[in-house]
Write the structure tokens for this entry.
Amino acid sequence: MLDPLALRALVGKTVPMPDPEVRERPVRRHFTAEYKRRIVEEANAATEPGVVGALLRREGLYSSHLTEWRRLYRVGALSGLTRPRGRPAPNPLAAENDRLRSAIDRLEARLVRAEKVIAVQGNVSALLRELSLGSAEHTDER
């Protein structure tokens, strides 16, 4: 029903026509935790009959929205909805820890290679010493 005063306000004015095109995919509405909290508190404060229905119509909400939001409000979950969505930011200490662990792994691999080089150098040195002693004995026998 239209209010007679609302009809008088429209006389002589052109009302823009809504866009008749329907979207290919509907857009899901997103409600902030603060909005949900405000609606629940306003609905809980209503004492007159029909006030909650008028609130839902004014906001374009369904009673199931209010039912779910009241349940979350009682549990205290609405305060937790203020966090940003998505993956939480990584702990900077964890990132530093990962960086240091990879540096340790890299340095340990270099250490193993260096120990192998030292062992080979020791073997070469021993072999050269043996060869030089053997050649000195061989020259002495002549």
Remarks:
- Residues 43 and 55 are 7 Å apart (CA to CA).
- Residues 98-142 form one domain.
- The mean pLDDT is 83.
- The chain has two domains: 28-86, 98-142.
